[in-house]
Structures are given as structure tokens and as C-alpha cells.
Amino acid sequence: MKSQSNDTAEATSVHTSPEYRARFAKAREALAGSYRRYALALGSVAVGLSIWHALSTLVFNPFLIPPPLEVFRTAVHMFSSGEILRDIRVSMVRVLVGFVSGSALAVLIGVPMGRLRTVNELLDPIVELLRYLSPTAMIPIAVIWFGIGEMAKYFLIFWGTFFIVLINTVAGVMRTPIARQRAAECLGASRGQLFLWVIVPSAVPHIVIGMRIAMAAAFMSIIPAEILAADSGLGNLLQTSGLLLQTNRMFVALGTISVLGYVTDRLFRLAIDRLLFRYMSLAALT
């Protein structure tokens, strides 16, 4: 009995200790912050849907802007029948191929451009001239070079991705703090070690930001890429629905692209936070 009372007293003292109470308060505050964030997100969606419904019923003709409920019903039918699933799969493959290839090449070119002055002076004028050409402007060139097959669509998404990641990569490499480089040199780091263990990790936050912006550009580029000449994909669905004056299906296509982009960005951020947390934390120190 005495041992049991001692254990109870010890547990009570632990639960009432300042450290335990501080941790409990911190956890409760984090939980409250999560609830608040989700509540605000749901409130934002509710406000947006309310404005949409008001515009479609009170301001404009419902045929021009179909109400949210009508779009939802159309989406349920298209998903349940599997009609839109193939378009989603095809569009996502095109986006991922163009985005990954554009980002990879941009990093491979951007790192030496940011580090080597000669390379920067040689390539920077060409980059500055070409980066103002949008994927839509490159459609005729893509058709001439690659025809109307998949390669033309990959190229247009690649074009919309490449320059955004390249500019951010160059900026990240060039903005590596001098103090960090000097500290590594004082510790005996060679040029190769300085490049691999200081410069490249310092550029990672800039590269990730560029990739997130480029991902949005890739989803925006998929529309002209698939309107170009395609028999599948969300861009083709959008164009076909427009020709048939099916505005409810058009809104389903637009909403699907938006949701896919949002989900892809969130998954990308989650992966970056898990895999590159150490490098991303450098952004808070610069």
C-alpha cells in the first residue's frame, strides 16, 4: 500500500511539474491552431461557393456560369462513369514528364551558371531572351519540330517549367552567404567540398520555391498543350465541352485542374519537408 501511494504521489508530481504543464500547453496550443487553420480553410471554401452561387443565380445567366450544385452533379456523374479518369491520368503524366525534365535540366544548368562567372556571362543573355516566350507562343514551333504527338505536349510543359526553375537556381547559388563559405574554407574544405556541402545545400530553398512556382506553370501549360491537338486530357475535355456549349462540363474540367494542382503542390511540400528539412531550415538562417 505504501509503495502504491508513493507511485501515485510521484505520478501526480510529474503531471503537475512546470515542464509537463508547459509541454501540455504547447500541445494544446498547436492543436487549437490546427483546428483554427482547418476552420478558416473550410470557411474560405464556403464563402467562395456562396459568391459563385450568387453570381450564377442573381447576376449572370445560369447557362453561362452554372451553379455549384449543378457542377457537382456533373462531376459525380463523370467520375462515377469513369469518363474523366482517363483524362486525369493522361494529363498528369504529361505534366509530370514536362515538369521533372524541365526542373532537372534547369538545376543542372543553373548551378554552374550561378557559380562560374564565365558560364553565366555566356548563357545569361540567351536565357533572358528566351524566357519571355510563353508556351502558347511556342505552339507553332512545337508542331513543326515534334508533330502533334506526345513529344510536342511534353516540350510545351517543359518550356513553361525550365526558365522558372533556372532563374531561381542561379539566384540561390549566387546568394550563398559569404560567411558560410569563409567558415568552410577556414575548416579546410576544398573547392569540391565547398561546392557540394555548402553552396548546393544553401541553394536548395530557392530551387524548391522555383519548382513550386514552375509546377503551377506546368498545370497552366497543359491547357494550350492539349488544346493543340489531342484526343484525351483535361485540356481536350475543356475544348470539346466549349465547342458543344457544355459549360457545366467546362467548369468540371477547370475545377479538376485546380484541385489536382493544389493536391500535387501539397504532396510536393510534404515530401520536401520530410526529405529536405535540414536544407530548408537554412532559409531561416539567411
Total number of distinct structural domains:
2
Overall pLDDT score: 81
CA-atom Rg in angstroms: 26 Å
Specify the biggest β-sheet. Answer: none
> Structural class, please?
mainly alpha
What's the CATH C level of the largest domain?
A: Mainly Alpha
What is the terminal separation in angstroms?
A: 59 Å
Oligomer description: single chain
CATH superfamily of the largest domain: MetI-like
Q: Helical residue percent? A: over 70%
Characterize the overall form: flat
What is the CATH architecture assignment of the largest domain? Orthogonal Bundle
What percent of residues are in strands?
under 5%
Task: Please describe what this structure looks like.
The protein is mainly alpha-helical. It folds into two domains: 2-59; 68-285, MetI-like (MetI-like fold). 84% of the residues lie in helices and 0% in strands. The chain is built from twelve helices and no strands. The protein has helices at 2-15, 18-59, 68-80, 83-115, 117-130, 139-146, 150-174, 178-186, 191-228, 234-243, 247-275, 277-280. The protein is flat, with a radius of gyration of 26 Å.
